[in-house]
Amino acid sequence: MQADQQLRQHLLKTITLTDDQFAYVFSHFKPLSFKKGQAIISPGDEVDAEYFVLSGCLKSFYLNDALKMFILQFAMPNWWASDYNALMYQVKATITVDCVTDAQVLYLSSNDREKLCTELHSFERFLRLRTNKGYVAAQKRLLSFMNNDANGRYEDLLKLYPELYHLVPKQLIAAYLGVSRETLSRLTYKRKGS
């Protein structure tokens, strides 16, 4: 599917745009390609954009002082990624966004985002609703960590994002779930045995 049609379908799930309005919105996006393992945002970077994933998979993660990786998000096609704290507050990035696979994205600069929000109420509405859905998803994930053991978090992940398990290396799934690779192997084996 062409990039413009993919973005259009994504937007039209939430808002209504005329052909001219969509053409204007799309004119503010820039297509970019990244290779597997390539960083899009690194700690200390100034962040001036967010990325709409056309193909491939991105991950957003944080490395603590002990170099333990905490994965905040996987972004598959039709998902968005950035360091939103850095983007919103114009501070240096604290997380990394990189490519799990080769990826094609659409880049939307912060300035263009604000311009579109000012000029098109429907686009501002789309972003508000998308942000709300992202907040709800983050809250559900946090509650899952508070209420579920490793097996419960694993089952939740498989229910919500079954395609992720085949797309992402198992050590990254383990980091997302907050378990060791060995624990993930046991959970996988246990599930196959049931």
From TrEMBL:
PROSITE patterns xref list: CNMP_BINDING_3
Domain of life: Bacteria
Pfam families: cNMP_binding (PF00027)
Family annotation (InterPro entries): cNMP-bd_dom, cNMP-bd_dom_sf, RmlC-like_jellyroll
Record-given protein name: Crp/Fnr family transcriptional regulator
Biological source species: Spirosoma telluris
Domain Cyclic nucleotide-binding intervals: 17-59
